[in-house]
Specification:
Blueprint (H helix, E strand, L loop, with lengths): L6 H10 L2 E5 L3 H12 L4 E5 L2 H6 L7 E6 L7 H11 L6 E5 L4 H9 L4 E4 L4 H33 L3 H11 L4 H8 L3 H14 L5 H10 L2 H4 L2
Parallel strand pairs: 1-2, 1-3, 3-4, 4-5
Helix pairs in contact: 7-9, 8-9
């Protein structure tokens, strides 16, 4: 019998796959771009319309969208605005056009586009733009995963552990915390140690950074 696959390994593998979405109504362009990006080991999903792209499922790993400005039906700029209005998870957008102008470029970049390439562009320019966009998205996802993990860990603390580490974050010593909370100093040490372990923090500075990232120090929760 083959050993059962580790679900966490499968999740990591899916999470690490880099996907490039292409939206262009010219089949030749979709094919050429797809071949170029697959040649450097990327997964490519191409669509002829913005509607097809919006209806498709999204991968969980780093991704970016290579989007033509001028499309039959909804334009690329209109899709960019739709994504913002729908408050969908952020995806880096690289615009391309054969009819670009300064106004279009400014509008796209102000709305968050990461690059704007005029056709015809060099293969290397597209590769560089896509690589940079995927690297940025990978960093964004890592920050989001780290925050989620910290939030889950924070929620695993008991109310008393919450209270202790909030005092710790203000710089109070164990003796001062004990006096404020009306408990023994040894009890503070136990709660503090358990909280540090649950938060996977090896120092007070690391613990405070995680709490600050979660907004706990401002909220005082």
């Amino acid at each position: 019998m083959h050993p059962a696959a580790d679900p966490s390994t499968a999740t990591r593998a899916t999470r690490d796959i880099r996907v490039v979405y292409i939206v262009d109504d010219e089949e030749l362009v979709r094919g050429a771009l797809g071949s170029l990006l697959r040649s450097i080991g990327l997964e490519v999903r191409a669509f002829a319309t913005t509607e097809e792209f919006l209806a498709a499922s999204r991968a969980g790993g780093p991704s970016c969208l290579v989007l033509d400005v001028r499309l039959r039906g909804q334009s690329g700029l209109a899709l960019q605005q739709s994504l913002l209005q729908l408050d969908l998870p952020s995806i880096p957008i690289i615009f391309m056009t054969g009819h670009g102008d300064i106004a279009m470029t400014v509008k796209a970049m102000k709305a968050g586009a990461v690059d704007f390439l005029s056709k015809p562009f060099r293969d290397q320019d597209m590769i560089d733009a896509v690589t940079a966009a995927l690297d940025n998205d990978a960093r964004r996802l890592e920050v989001r995963r780290s925050l989620h993990e910290s939030r889950v860990r924070w929620e695993s603390l008991t109310p008393r552990e919450h209270e202790v580490v909030l005092h710790v974050a203000t710089g109070l010593m164990n003796k001062q915390i004990a006096a404020n909370m009306g408990i023994a100093e040894i009890t503070v040490k136990i709660h503090r140690g358990q909280a540090m372990r649950k938060m996977n923090s090896r120092s007070v500075a690391e613990l405070v950074r995680k709490m600050d990232a979660l907004g706990l120090l401002q909220d005082g929760i």
